[in-house]
C-alpha cells in the first residue's frame, strides 16, 4: 500500500494549549481499518517543529496512546480540540484515558530529530452503547455501496451525502462516468467558507453501464478529514482522474493523486502523485515532489527562500523508486 499521510505539513494554530501545541505541523488523522481496534502513524519530528495528529470518537471510549522512537527521546501531549482546552497528557510516551469528541496529539522532541511510531488503541470496554472504533472514525464501509444502481443517489449509503462530483469518461467507452465525494450529513452544502475538512469523507467511482451505473471503485482513506483550510477538487481529463487537495494555515500542503482505469483488473491504478509544500506568507523554502508510478521516477524541486527576492532560486534532483502496483483503495490505507 502507499501511504502519504506523513507528508502533510500544514500548520495548526491551537489557541489555549501549551507551548508544545502553539505551532505544529499537521500529520493528518489517525485512522482505523474497519474492524480494527488500533491505528498507527509513522513520521519524523524535529526539535521546535512538533507534528500534530487528530482522532475522533463519538461515544465515550477508553483510549491508549504510545510512541516509540529509536533514540527514545520523542514525546507527545494530548488535548481536546476545543477552545482553551487543557492538556490531558503532557511530555509522555504512554497515556491512557476516557475520551469523547475530537482530540489533538502533539508529537515533539527536545533536541535533534528522530523517526517515530505512534499507536492509538480505542476500545469500548464496559461503556454502555459505545460504537466500535471503525464506526467512531466514520470510515465508509465499501460493502455498503451497492454494486449497481439506476441513479447516482442509489450509491449513497445511509449516514452520508454527496459533497461534490466530477464527470467524464474513465474507461474509454465514450460514456460519462461519475466520481462522488461523500461526506457526513452535517457538512455544509456550500463549503466555500468552511475552514476545516469534513469529519467523514470518502470517494466513490461510478462507471456508466447502459442506462445504469456500476460501482467502479471506493476509497475510504484517500480524502483528508478535519484538516484546516481544506479544499478538494476532482477532475477527469483524457481518461485520468485527478484528485487535488489543499490544506494548512501558515504552512500549506498541496497534493494531487492521478488514477487510470486498468482493464485487466477492472480497478483504478495510481499512476502519479504530486505534492507542494509552502508557507503562507512565504517565509521558508518550498518543496515540490512529483512521482511517476508507471516509470518509478521522482523529481524533487526545492525553492530556496531569500527575503525580499522577486523569485525563488530552484534546484532540482531526480531519484528512482521501486514501482509496485497501488490501486485507489490502497492509498493511505492503514
Instruction: Write down the domain tally.
Output: 2
Number of strands: 20
The dominant shape is: globular
Which parts are unreliable, with pLDDT below 50 for 5 consecutive residues or more?
A: 3-22, 125-137
User: Which sequence of SSEs, written as H and E, runs from N to C?
Assistant: EEEEEEEEHEEEEEEEEEEEE
What secondary-structure arrangement, pairings included, does this model have?
Elements (H helix, E strand, L loop, with lengths): L10 E2 L11 E6 L8 E9 L3 E19 L6 E6 L6 E6 L1 E15 L4 E11 L9 H5 L10 E2 L11 E8 L8 E7 L17 E9 L2 E8 L11 E7 L2 E9 L2 E12 L4 E13 L6 E7 L4 E8 L8 E8 L14
Parallel strand pairs: 2-4
Antiparallel strand pairs: 1-2, 3-8, 4-7, 4-8, 5-6, 5-7, 9-13, 10-11, 11-12, 12-13, 14-15, 15-16, 16-17, 17-18, 18-19, 19-20
Fold and architecture overview:
The protein is globular, with a radius of gyration of 20 Å. It has one helix at 133-137; strands spanning 11-12, 24-29, 38-46, 50-68, 75-80, 87-92, 94-108, 113-123, 148-149, 161-168, 177-183, 201-209, 212-219, 231-237, 240-248, 251-262, 267-279, 286-292, 297-304, 313-320. Strands 1, 2, 3, 4, 5, 6, 7 and 8 form an eight-stranded mixed beta sheet that branches. Strands 14-15-16-17-18-19-20 form a seven-stranded antiparallel beta sheet, with no helix packed on it. The chain has 334 residues and is an all-beta fold. The chain starts with 10 loop residues before the first strand and ends in a 14-residue tail after the last strand. The protein has one helix and 20 strands. The protein has two domains: 5-137, Jelly Rolls, CATH 2.60.120.380; 142-330, no CATH class. A hairpin with an 8-residue loop joins strand 10 (161-168) and strand 11.
Amino acid at each position: 500500500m502507499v501511504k502519504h499521510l506523513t507528508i502533510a505539513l500544514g500548520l495548526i494554530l491551537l489557541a489555549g494549549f501549551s507551548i508544545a501545541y502553539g505551532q505544529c505541523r499537521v500529520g493528518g488523522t489517525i485512522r482505523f481499518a474497519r474492524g480494527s481496534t488500533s491505528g498507527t502513524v509513522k513520521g519524523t519530528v524535529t526539535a521546535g517543529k512538533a507534528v500534530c495528529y487528530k482522532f475522533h470518537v463519538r461515544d465515550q471510549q477508553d483510549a491508549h496512546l504510545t510512541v516509540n522512537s529509536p533514540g527514545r527521546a520523542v514525546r507527545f501531549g494530548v488535548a481536546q480540540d476545543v477552545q482553551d482546552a487543557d492538556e490531558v497528557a503532557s511530555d509522555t510516551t504512554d497515556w491512557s484515558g476516557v475520551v469523547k469528541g475530537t482530540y489533538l496529539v502533539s508529537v515533539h522532541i527536545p533536541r535533534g530529530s528522530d523517526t517515530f511510531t505512534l499507536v492509538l488503541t480505542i476500545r469500548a470496554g464496559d461503556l454502555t452503547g459505545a460504537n466500535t472504533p471503525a464506526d467512531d472514525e466514520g470510515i465508509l464501509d465499501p460493502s455498503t455501496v451497492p454494486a449497481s444502481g439506476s441513479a447516482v443517489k442509489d450509491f449513497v449509503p445511509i449516514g452520508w451525502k454527496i459533497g461534490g462530483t466530477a464527470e467524464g469518461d474513465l474507461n474509454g467507452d465514450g460514456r460519462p462516468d461519475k466520481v462522488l465525494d461523500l461526506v457526513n450529513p452535517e457538512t455544509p452544502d456550500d463549503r466555500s467558507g468552511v475552514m476545516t475538512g469534513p469529519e467523514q469523507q470518502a470517494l466513490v467511482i461510478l462507471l456508466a453501464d447502459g442506462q445504469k451505473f456500476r460501482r467502479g471503485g471506493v476509497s475510504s482513506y484517500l480524502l483528508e478529514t478535519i484538516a484546516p483550510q481544506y479544499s478538494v477538487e476532482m477532475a477527469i481529463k483524457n481518461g485520468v482522474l485527478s484528485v487535488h487537495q489543499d490544506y494548512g494555515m501558515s504552512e500549506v500542503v498541496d497534493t494531487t493523486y492521478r488514477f487510470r482505469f486498468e482493464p485487466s483488473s477492472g480497478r483504478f491504478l495510481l499512476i502519479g502523485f504530486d505534492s507542494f509544500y509552502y508557507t503562507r506568507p512565504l517565509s521558508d523554502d518550498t518543496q515540490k515532489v512529483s512521482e511517476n508510478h508507471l516509470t518509478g521516477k521522482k523529481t524533487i524541486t526545492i525553492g530556496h527562500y531569500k527575503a525580499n527576492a522577486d523569485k525563488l532560486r530552484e534546484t532540482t534532483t531526480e531519484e528512482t523508486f521501486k514501482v509496485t502496483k497501488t490501486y485507489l483503495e490502497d492509498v493511505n490505507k492503514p
